[in-house]
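Bumping with the actual sequence this time:
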Amino acid sequence: MVTTEIKKGLANLEVFSATLQALAETDKDLYVVTSDSRGSGKLVPFGQRYPDQIVEIGIAEQNLVGVAAGLASMKKKAFAVSPACFLTARALEQIKNDVCYSDNAVKLIGISAGVSYGALGTTHHSLHDYAVLRAINNISIVAPADNFETEQAIRTAAKMDSPIYLRFGKKNMPENLAPDDGSFLIGKGRVLSEGNDFVFFATGEAVWPCVEAAQLLHEKYNLSATVVSMHTIKPLDTNLIKRLASAGKPVITVEEHSVYGGLGEAIASFMMQEGLHNKLKIVGIPDEHTVHGSQNEIFKHYGLSAEGLMNTAISMIRP
């Protein structure tokens, strides 16, 4: 059960920027390519410290990915930074062909992802990115849940010789949702708490509400939940899923993404093929025009808040 006090930290994007600056201090082959997004990507300090290692493309996402692919083909460590909604829609062909098919180790950074843009509405919400990228060969998909995972993911991505997509929201996140756990490996989920009654598999900024929901379940119903940060959606940690689901506990997947094509469907598909017939609920954004509002308001509306997730869990064990 989660008992450790969770310390509020920075926005994951700020940790991303600070980590890039630390890496660039000793690595002149590290480049950042932006599409008029150095401000929203928290990259102004990077540009001030390393003006020769940042390339401003302007609002031209296809060019952004093409330039980053060119840098990567010359063995540069290219981080392509753009709002997730545009990066994985307008530049999808370039991601598929220039990055993945051509095996250029671009680090694609989708910022202000999910419903981070809130009131700007569906045009600016990124609820499709997991789905489209999961269908493309040769790319890892990672959505860190806290500051610790963010720093580790960026440091790992900088060393990778294959494409990767990293997804970040805007709000301040915890420093570390599991302070006693210093492990992070791409492709391996992080177990944040162990419980006997439910399993939450969540990713990105949807992990924190699951941790809070586990606490509510303990306080109000004396029930316990296992909470897993599935920061890597591709490749999926199937060994962990099989281990935790084999006990037959109800499984709840939670993501700031469409219920189609994301973490939930990936886990459901694996479980079905493995003959694991647990009760399962995919919590995400349904197939509709998304409501407007802040991220917190949208989470509450669609049951992604701590209370909403608690109620979903209880509904799975009541007659």
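The tokens above came from a reply further down the thread. Residues 207-221 form the longest helix (15 residues).
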